[in-house]
Amino acid sequence: MEKLNYLAFAMPAFFLFVWLEYKAAQRKKRPELFKYESSVSNISIGIAERLLNLFVAASFYQLYYYVYDNYAIWDIPANWMVWIALILATDFVWYWYHRLGHEVNIFWAAHIVHHHSEEFNFTAAARITTIQAVIRTAFWCLLPLAGFHPTMVITMLLVHGAYSFFTHTQVVGRIKWLEYVFITPSLHGVHHASDEKYLDKNYGDMFVFWDKLFGTYQAEEEAPKYGLTHPLKSYSFLWQHFHYYFEIAESYRRANGFKAKWKAVFGSPAHMDQDIRPELEKKFLQCRSLQLRQLRFKGYLALQIALCTLMLMWFTFFFAYQDIADKVFTLTFILLTLVNCGALLEQRRWIYYLEYARLLLLSSYLLYNNDMVEYIFIPVALLFVAEKYFSLGQRYQGYILQTRS
Ligand SMILES: [Zn+2]
Ligand SMILES: [Zn+2]
Predict the structure, then answer these.
(1) Are 64 and 149 spatial neighbours (Cβ–Cβ below 8 Å)?
(2) Which of 160, 104, 95, 107 is nearest to 135 (CA)?
(3) Chain-wide mean pLDDT for the chain?
């Protein structure tokens, strides 16, 4: 049992803090700090990242060891002074990783997802994607390259990652004396704001002095307006992840000459043509046939998120003991459910096809585990009959989406 993964407990801890923050927001009479749709969307993105991370984390760690064993520049010993040097070095690397994430299109495509949320609370901290984690790992390799031992680096990254969770909240207000040294929730809130004077400020994660040193520091003055300058008006799980890559591709296609094409990929997001996104949305999200109205299926959605979280917790804890079929099933089932949650928020008509896909996936997995795969025709036939004779699709839409007309 030595291979159990205790990171599974980060999930209940996360929900505990979200719940405490929610209660605090209610007590402060600030219910607007949370918005149902945005919380569901933020948590969905976080679940996907934690899920995919299980498959890639080991290779990230191996990469640190590989870099350290083959290319370490200095031989840095492991004593308490080194921990201080490492925490500073980590935050310094983070500063540049984060700053380039805002200044270079191809990096912004991954980091933009973190900034979609117009609500600034603990759930927004969960908006990290695996693509972002891959880019970040490339930057983190600088630490073992400098000669910090990978075990220390990995420990530090966990601490560093945990710190930034707590800077995503509005319930604590400004703590001015802390701002001399640390990035506080107020300072990171400025980073998440779309107000002109707050743009491209406060890239630090733990310490404030990199921003002061490189001229990107800004204290909170007026109350920030959170989110992007050009907000993404979609809760689609896939579109949120990939829209900016499509924008880059379109901008690249339109660009004439090498210099313009280079800029489309490596130029500044500030110069991205703002007409591209609405055009792409028209093309890719055209089947948005329903206007957003009062959500009538909050319970159903909450159940799905709870189900995904429980599955993910169990999956994380016993990851080393799962066989390939368990892995493929859990990965696909959770990802389909998250796409489903996004589609529910957008009230898409095609959503019941996804529900069919999930039911079939679940039945195939159960049959496979019992060596009865050849009986897959039974659930397929049942679904067919339900659709043909009981109009399951229409009933589903009528009940979940309230679209009976
Ligand atoms: Zn950022
Ligand atoms: Zn943030």
Answers:
(1) no
(2) 107
(3) 90
